[in-house]
């Protein structure tokens, strides 16, 4: 009975002894393994005879000490080469010569025609410097990413995420890189920093040295930055030399499986999907489980002796015997009896534990219920519930309609926050569609966690929003504070966002010119109410077309007050860290970090331009004057090309007098000097005046000379010879901002 086992053990020991005598060979037989301090594994080799093909030839340069390896096909110095499909190379870095005009520059890398690609998993595009913006382009035309950095001398940030330094991801399988950049402060072709792709690990580990260079970049200098490491991915499809104990795979963090052999990669291919590139991942080979070495060399995968390392085997209480590619465990009779006792003891202990659990089931149920109640109470206090109760207990605060929902009620309403109920996700949280017990359809916003220092501000916002009673502001119905993160309950608005209707129009119900004018009036009225008619002035701070909803009658509803702030009546601005959406962000606020009511006016001006042109706030198509719609619009106005950029439906349905009046109002809202922008109240009144101009029923009282002169200036600023047909501006119908208009009627 035991003879076969003994023979197997003896055979395995002999085989292991033979294998142990064989050292791991990384290069082709008879070829040097190293150039200087760098190991050169096959399919790479020093000289054409030692490499798989001409793409993997390495030249060992003896001009330096130690010698340095050069990848001949791409003429780059290799810092390290891995058989797992990567190579770390040394790339030159050139400075950027910036100005306020856009410039395009190519990174000095060309991998076309080689098996090498720039790894998007290990690298990122880094822009070192400040007050600069960089766009990454693929195929020299398509913008695929970008970032912007601001200046801060005293910053302690070490993440390179926008302060003195920024970075962006790379698309997969790139063999060339081109980027466009522009400076906010340079006035001529002067040094302003560097932009280059580099190894994310190097950026993270060498950040102290990198940080020192950043501080110097705040005051430009003439020294060259030199070089930075870059990780390339390579691929070898020729299976002639693969080891019999290797497997081909694709890199990924999440999925893994092995093929039987690299000798035929088409059989049992294992797919390792890169999360950034599902269509063309880079394929590489490695030794199968139980082996180590170079999978690209015949016999290059050597058996691992699992018995020499206790962490590689599980023969606890027995004898480990190494086999080819694996190991076995041998146990004596005493070991077997001991192993049988262990399950019996475990079963007995389990039965005893079940009896104890069954006996204490009722008490545990009560304890669990109490724990849940305490947990809810803890969340309620942490989320500011006591502070909100104080406001609710007041008799004159107008909060009698605000409801405190239970966590159970909202969980049932949203089907336990089912993913199918998600209406949208944003920087402030996730919004779910729900139905309350009484049948009302609501939107439940699951906010991000509120810090203790922001509790008073958060509760103050809930109180303020509960008091807002305006027909064009989404109504806050209540909140729930007994969950880990606060939940806000709003009325449900069924017809989506203004952004969707502008940029993905419904052919059955498109946005007419009349609807666009009405939506602009309604949004302006709502913002005017928040700024000047609410009990406490409120700055929205994120006005954009995606935060303007349309109800069942396509009336505008301003939503998403997650970043809004209330201010004292005598307060002129808020000093905060810069928040907002690129394209709608007030440049003055971006520079000073001081948000005023005129910052909301600027964002509303961008929305007005969206309604006029049908274009997005940010687009790579507008390369000549910048991606910003505001910049494009102002440039077109200055060049008297307004009617060249308007939406086709606006040109078809709108009167030229109305279009020019709206465009001029938008231009004033987008003025770079916030003091020269109108207030939202003035904007709302002017929009009502334009509506009155259309209906022929304009209020004539309080008509002052300033308004008349202003409209005359509008008319004179246009070159009407460029516009077909005649346009008549009746300056006598202008409505003064001081005239009382019924803009803020509450529902």
UniProtKB/TrEMBL annotation:
It is found in: Membrane. Residues 1-21 form the signal peptide. Keywords: ATP-binding, Disulfide bond, Glycoprotein, Kinase, Membrane, Nucleotide-binding, Serine/threonine-protein kinase, Signal, Transferase, Transmembrane, Transmembrane helix. It is a single-pass type I membrane protein. Gene3D superfamilies: Laminin, Phosphorylase Kinase, domain 1, Transferase(Phosphotransferase) domain 1. Residues 417-690 form the Protein kinase domain. GO terms for molecular function: ATP binding; calcium ion binding; polysaccharide binding; protein serine kinase activity; protein serine/threonine kinase activity. SMART domains: S_TKc. It catalyses: L-seryl-[protein] + ATP = O-phospho-L-seryl-[protein] + ADP + H(+); L-threonyl-[protein] + ATP = O-phospho-L-threonyl-[protein] + ADP + H(+). Its main location: membrane. Its EC number is 2.7.11.1. The keyword Repeat does not apply. InterPro entries: EGF_Ca-bd_CS (IPR018097), Kinase-like_dom_sf (IPR011009), Prot_kinase_dom (IPR000719), Ser/Thr_kinase_AS (IPR008271), WAK-like (IPR045274), WAK_GUB (IPR025287). GO terms for biological process: cell surface receptor signaling pathway. GO terms for cellular component: plasma membrane. This is Serine/threonine protein kinase. The lineage of its organism: Eukaryota, Viridiplantae, Streptophyta, Embryophyta, Tracheophyta.
């Amino acid at each position: 009975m035991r003879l076969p086992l003994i023979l197997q053990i003896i055979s395995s020991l002999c085989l292991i002894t033979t294998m142990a005598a064989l050292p791991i060979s990384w290069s082709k037989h008879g070829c040097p393994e190293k150039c200087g301090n760098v190991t050169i594994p096959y399919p790479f080799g020093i000289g054409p005879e030692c490499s798989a093909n001409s793409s993997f030839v390495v030249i060992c340069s003896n001009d330096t000490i130690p010698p340095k390896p050069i990848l001949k096909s791409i003429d780059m110095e290799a810092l390290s080469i891995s058989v797992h499909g990567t190579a770390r190379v040394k790339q030159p870095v050139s400075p950027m010569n910036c100005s306020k005009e856009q410039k395009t520059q190519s990174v000095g890398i060309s991998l076309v025609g080689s098996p090498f690609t720039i790894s998007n998993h290990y690298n990122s595009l880094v822009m070192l410097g400040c007050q600069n913006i960089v766009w990454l382009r693929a195929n020299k035309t398509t913008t695929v990413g970008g970032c912007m950095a601001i200046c801060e001398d005293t910053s302690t940030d070490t993440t390179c995420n926008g302060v003195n330094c920024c970075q962006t991801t790379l698309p997969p399988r790139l063999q060339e890189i081109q980027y466009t950049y522009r400076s906010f402060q340079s006035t001529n072709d002067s040094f302003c920093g560097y932009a280059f792709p580099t190894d994310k690990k190097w950026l993270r580990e060498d950040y102290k040295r990198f940080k020192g260079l950043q501080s110097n970049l705040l005051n430009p200098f003439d020294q060259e930055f030199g070089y930075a490491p870059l990780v390339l991915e390579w691929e070898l499809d020729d299976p002639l030399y693969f080891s019999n104990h290797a497997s081909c795979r694709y890199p990924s963090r999440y999925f893994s499986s092995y093929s039987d052999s690299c000798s035929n990669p088409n059989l049992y291919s294992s797919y390792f999907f890169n999360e950034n590139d599902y269509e063309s991942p880079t394929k590489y080979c490695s030794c199968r489980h139980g082996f180590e070495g170079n999978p690209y060399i015949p016999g290059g995968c050597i058996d691992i002796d699992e018995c020499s390392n206790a962490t590689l085997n599980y023969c606890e209480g027995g004898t480990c015997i190494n086999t080819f590619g694996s190991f076995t465990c041998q146990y004596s009779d005493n070991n077997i009896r001991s192993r049988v006792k262990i399950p019996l003891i475990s079963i007995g202990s389990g039965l005893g534990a079940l009896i104890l659990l069954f006996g204490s089931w009722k008490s545990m149920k009560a304890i669990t219920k109490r724990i849940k109640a305490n947990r809810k109470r803890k969340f309620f206090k942490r989320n500011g519930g006591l502070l909100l109760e104080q406001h609710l207990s007041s008799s004159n605060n107008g909060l009698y309609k605000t409801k405190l929902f239970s966590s159970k009620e909202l969980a049932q309403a949203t089907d336990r926050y089912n993913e199918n109920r998600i209406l949208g996700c944003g920087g402030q949280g996730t919004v779910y569609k729900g139905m309350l017990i009484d049948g009302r359809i609501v939107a439940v916003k699951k906010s991000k966690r509120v810090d203790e220092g922001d509790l008073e501000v958060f509760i103050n916002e809930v109180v303020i929003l509960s008091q807002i009673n305006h027909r064009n502001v989404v109504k806050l119905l209540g909140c729930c504070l007994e969950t880990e993160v606060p939940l806000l309950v709003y009325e449900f608005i069924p017809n989506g966002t203004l952004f969707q209707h502008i940029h993905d129009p419904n052919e059955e119900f498109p946005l007419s010119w009349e609807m666009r004018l009405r939506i602009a009036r309604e949004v302006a009225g709502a913002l005017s109410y928040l700024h000047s008619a609410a009990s406490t002035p409120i700055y929205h701070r994120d006005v954009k077309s995606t935060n303007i909803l349309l109800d069942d009658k396509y009336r505008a509803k301003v939503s998403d007050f997650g970043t809004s702030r209330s201010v004292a009546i005598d307060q002129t601005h808020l000093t905060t860290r810069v928040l907002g959406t690129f394209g709608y962000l007030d440049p003055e606020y971006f520079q000073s970090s001081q948000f005023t009511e005129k910052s909301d006016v600027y964002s509303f001006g961008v929305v007005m331009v969206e309604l006029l042109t049908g274009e997005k706030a940010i687009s790579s198509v507008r390369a000549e004057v910048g991606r910003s719609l505001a910049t494009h619009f102002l440039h077109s106005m200055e060049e008297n090309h307004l009617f060249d950029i308007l939406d086709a439906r606006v040109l078809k349905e709108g009167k030229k007098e109305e279009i020019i009046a709206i465009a001029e109002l938008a231009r004033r809202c987008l003025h770079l000097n916030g003091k020269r922008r109108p207030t939202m109240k003035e904007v709302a009144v002017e929009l009502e005046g334009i509506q009155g101009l259309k209906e022929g029923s304009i209020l004539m009282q309080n008509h002052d000379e300033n308004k008349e002169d202003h409209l005359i200036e509008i008319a004179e600023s246009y070159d009407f010879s460029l516009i077909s047909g005649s346009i008549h501006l009746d300056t006598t119908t202008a409505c003064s901002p001081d005239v009382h208009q019924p803009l803020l009627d509450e529902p």
